[in-house]
Amino acid sequence: MKIAVCVKEVPDPGPNRRIDPGTKRMDRSGDRSLNQYDLHAVEQALRLKEAAGDGEVVLISMGASRALDSIRKGLGMGADRAVLVSDEAAAGSDLVATTAVLAAALEAESPDLVLFGQQATDGDGAVLWAAVADKLRMPVVSQISELEVADGHATAKRQTEFGYDKIRAPLPAVLAVADSLNEPRYPSLKGIMGAKKKPQDVKSLADVGVDPGSAGEAGSRTTVIALSPPPSRGETIKIEDDGSGAQKIIDFLMERKLV
Amino acid sequence: MSTLVFLEHHGSSIQRGALGVLGKAAQLDPDTAGVIIGAGVRDVATEAGRFGAKKVFVADDAALEAPLPQPRVDVISRLVQDQGFGTVLFAASVLASDVAGGVAARLGAGLNWDLNDLEVQDGALVGKRSALGDTVIADVGWTAEPRLGLVRAGSFDPAESGGEAAVEEISAALEDFSSKAEMVEQAHEEQSGPSIEEADILVTGGRGLGAPENFSILEELAAALGGAVASTRAVVDSGWYPYPTQVGQTGKVVSPKLYIGAGVSGAIQHKVGMQTSQTIVAINKDPNAPIFEFSDLGIVGDLNDIVPKLTELVKERKS
Ligand SMILES: Cc1cc2nc3c(=O)[nH]c(=O)nc-3n(C[C@H](O)[C@H](O)[C@H](O)COP(=O)(O)OP(=O)(O)OC[C@H]3O[C@@H](n4cnc5c(N)ncnc54)[C@H](O)[C@@H]3O)c2cc1C
Ligand SMILES: Nc1ncnc2c1ncn2[C@@H]1O[C@H](COP(=O)(O)O)[C@@H](O)[C@H]1O
Fold it and tell me: Fewer CB atoms inside 10 A, N or C side of chain B?
């Protein structure tokens, strides 16, 4: 079984994240890592491969070439190789443009399963899989909290606003997994050392057969017009616990007459 | 006609969020239509007129019964092409988000998500999008038609205007791959549990608790405070705590006087369910956890140390 996992390098969550006011794009110059939610997709792919006894796990990503630094974490966990589509002309891609690029890279691999994480922490779109599945003409199931793959079918449980659905789809299929599906393993030291030697193909748009007009800003259909700060919620206090954390909370609650 | 709203239904009624978006759309564009997709849904259409739709397209077909996205992508994409809608709006939900993503790919259209407001600026539609954990608001636009927008849950309240909608039936021509996924079991309600919506004080536990049995320390704190225990999707999905206690987009929307989150990261889909809490206190060992950006008091530390101590202090204070 060949499993492709779509993974993304994102800026580390926290107060230092920002959108560049000039380009109105995400500022990707600071600390960055593999999107935490994608680790669950990598983990699931590895478990499926291990259960099947053979197969291949390929990481697929679009991003700047230095994104390989983050993607190597997935290789360290045990994925077999990585394909990164990296091209100046792909910068600033919105949903449709990203879909065109990833779908092309995935088509070249003909995987039995395409896994996605639950959301990217920089965009929080949680929609990309649905667009990619449409381009690939494959069935899609999202928000998966339990998964069984057997007899050429995936059976998934997932939460909606109304309770839990169970959905079955034949392979090849696109599956987006929730963070509750598994606990991602940590890469072992041996894994980390070995990751450097695993195949890491950096491809251009031309390599995956995508016209530059379909990617990047040229291929995008949305734009950011202006940025502004949100309304303030009032003062927020953040304190490092030095043993007095509980006391600080009770003082605060008493001050607000909540106890 | 220029704006189309996806009217997601459950049972025989249209979802509140979708009716809210419909009302907003009708305010911005008097030529707003809705589309209802399912099996046995003709009667659902009348409700749409009362909430602002001039016209409702109804695709009623046994093949559309299960609330799966891909057949809906086929119906909506076709309708948008046939009628030339300039804008298509969705109220975010598990189903609607997947439908919107599929339609974007099919039509090569721009999709803006997480919109919490919409306005017309100089004749052009502009969305207000909260980004990066709500630390910045982006005014977003579209460079081509159709413009697709996913509106964040709870952004607009439905407003009854009392009109009547013309109903037009449309047929469903489905792509081969769209019917491959099948619903085996639908909307199964997991075990029942206590109601959290009435509680003045909620102590919420997330995956940072580490194991289901650790919820007991939160139960003790909640008992001491006279409150109830709530949870995140991560722990509900894992079977650690019952679904009725879940706060967030696919759980409950709560507004207690005091919300205490322990081992909760504060993901956006959780936040939409508790952001109107009067006072928010967070305990998390990660100083970069998003929850600290919207907490009145945040303690960076280990909940296993802090929560039991806090329970003792509350008990002392009360005795
Ligand atoms: C369509 C959709 C709908 C969703 N609906 C909902 C919803 O309704 N409700 C919801 O909650 N989520 C929802 N989610 C999921 C949401 O995105 C997050 O995945 C989820 O809220 C994370 O739960 P968590 O905070 O418990 O876990 P995590 O994000 O894993 O956070 C655990 C936190 O615990 C901290 N921690 C760990 N150990 C300790 C310790 N010893 N002491 C203190 N802190 C510790 C960690 O630093 C971390 O911040 C939805 C997602 C999608 C895509
Ligand atoms: N640039 C990218 N390259 C590869 N996969 C991506 C990229 N962006 C998003 N993804 C995948 O799509 C999922 C959902 O992302 P999003 O819809 O952006 O929230 C992520 O969890 C990843 O699995």
Answer: C
Contact of A8 with A36, CB cutoff 8 Å: no
Phi/psi for A144 (5° steps) reads -75, 125
Q: Evaluate if residue B184 carries a pLDDT over 70.
A: yes
Distance CA B134, CA B114 (A): 10
Contact B250, B230 (CB under 8 A): no
> Is the CB of B108 less than 8 angstroms away from the CB of A179?
no
8 Å CB contact between A15 and B288: yes
Give the separation between CA B145 and CA B156, rounded to whole angstroms.
Answer: 24
Confidence band of B191 (pLDDT split at 50, 70, 90) = low
Ligand 2 pocket, residues with Cβ under 6 angstroms: A 6-8, 35, 37-38, 41, 61-63, 98, 102, 116-117, 119-120, 123-128
Do A111 and A230 form a contact (C-beta atoms < 8 A)?
no
| For residue A184, pLDDT beyond 70 | yes
CB B99 within 8 A of CB B6: yes
Cα(A248)–Cα(A106) distance, integer angstroms: 52
pTM of the model: 0.96
Question: Which residue has the least CA distance to atom 21 on ligand 2?
Answer: A117
| CA dist list (Å): B88 to A142, A201, B7, B83 | 22, 38, 11, 12
Can you count the helices (H) and strands (E) in chain A?
Answer: 8, 13
* CA proximity to A79, closest of A60, A61, A57: A57
Helix ranges restricted to H, chain A: 36-52, 68-77, 95-107, 128-136, 189-195, 205-208, 216-219, 245-255
* CB-count burial class (<10 Å; 0-12, 13-18, 19+) for A245: buried
Express each pLDDT in B12-38 by its tens digit.
999 999 999 999 999 999 999 999 999
Widest Cα–Cα separation across chain A: 64
Q: What percent of chain B has pLDDT over 90?
A: 90
Q: Give helix A95-107 / helix A128-136 axis angle, nearest 10°.
A: 50
Task: Tell me the pLDDT of chain B averaged across its residues.
Answer: 95
Question: Residue B129, class by beta-carbon neighbours within 10 Å (0-12 exposed, 13-18 middle, 19+ buried)?
Answer: buried
Q: In whole angstroms, what is the distance from residue B28 CA to residue B154 CA?
A: 18
More confident residue, B184 or B188: B184
Chain B residues touching A230 at Cβ < 8 A: 130, 134-137
Residue B308, H or E segment: helix B303-318
Beta-bridge mates of residue B246? B231
Average pLDDT, chain A: 96
